[in-house]
């Protein structure tokens, strides 16, 4: 019972990284118009902010660095220092008075998010009991869902016209003067939202500093199998070489990258489609649209919570199929057309169900199970780099498919369906049977005694 409690405690502490990941993405997106008005930014400026943010290249670069650092120096090494970098990035955003500062803040935050992802999923899996590994990954995913939900709520409360905007105005006038320009005052709502991330990051850093090093990493420092150089005894280049020269590892990277990439290409543009459907096709107000988005994220959290009770008891493939079926149904609703508020609610709930049973859950679970400790985090960092990097490129391609005024809307929707079908088929064919097995057992079955 004590071990189970310890596993849950460490999972919650590390899962705060997912909150900070998703929270940074949504905080940046929700306040981007305010920063544009305040700094006079062009669409090119906004494109740069998106490209180097936590949703794209910033996180991609950070992930490939952080993954191999976690395999070299340990998971706790990442937890000890990385969130200090995150807090620095958020602080720079909060204090930004020009575009270079804002760009720098987005970049630092994005890199930190990427550095933390592979270490977090690896640590959660390695510190979990055999019968709770899936549950703990689900808890981590719940944190990822709560980030956008809470940040969107903050955005609604602190935004101009929101219930707490009076507080924002008083803070702004106290800092920059009573005669400050309206745009300068309004952007303080975004600064306040980023401040909430700073507070959560500080709490997470305090909790994570108290964690013990992963037991899976300890053998890598010389207590494990003789003749196998891992962890501190091997160089980062050795681990990269081992990853790319092992046929099973390469095959696994390909499988996981395909299912996650095809799903993530769809998920990455949902932030674009949802406001369009809610406000344009659905004719909703901005406040109603934000409320419906919050409801969607609430569905994600509730469905993931339900999944956490069954994922270690029932076949993973069952939930994998159900999640993608909900995703496909979401885009069928879009293709048939939005006919009223009922269609918008169906759209939001179906995508929320997909989020609660998302491919990302199984990617995080399988990605931390299917590689040996030698390059477990590095492999995840590599895949995250590939997925986030290509998602950034896809965001540019997608705008051409979609068109200036949405004339390519139906074609774009069919592209989404094709991508989801690829993720479904490849996942069903290649889904591993890891439920109920220890990480050591899985590694031995896949790679033999040497690992």
Radius of gyration: 22 Å
Largest beta-sheet details: none
- Gap between N and C termini: 30 Å
How many distinct beta strands? 0
Helical element count?
19
Mean pLDDT across all amino acids: 85
Residues in β-strands, percent: under 5%
Order of helices and strands: HHHHHHHHHHHHHHHHHHH
Question: Which residue ranges are poorly predicted, with pLDDT under 50 across at least 5 consecutive positions?
Answer: 219-233
Envelope shape: globular
> What is the SS-derived class?
mainly alpha
Overall helicity: over 70%
Report what the structure shows.
The protein is an all-alpha fold and 451 residues long. It is built from 19 helices and no strands. It has helices spanning 2-30, 32-39, 43-51, 57-73, 75-95, 99-126, 133-158, 165-176, 182-186, 188-208, 236-245, 247-281, 286-308, 316-336, 341-356, 359-369, 376-402, 409-430, 439-447. Helix 1 runs parallel beside helix 7 and helix 5 (75-95) runs antiparallel to helix 6 (99-126). The protein is globular, with a radius of gyration of 22 Å.
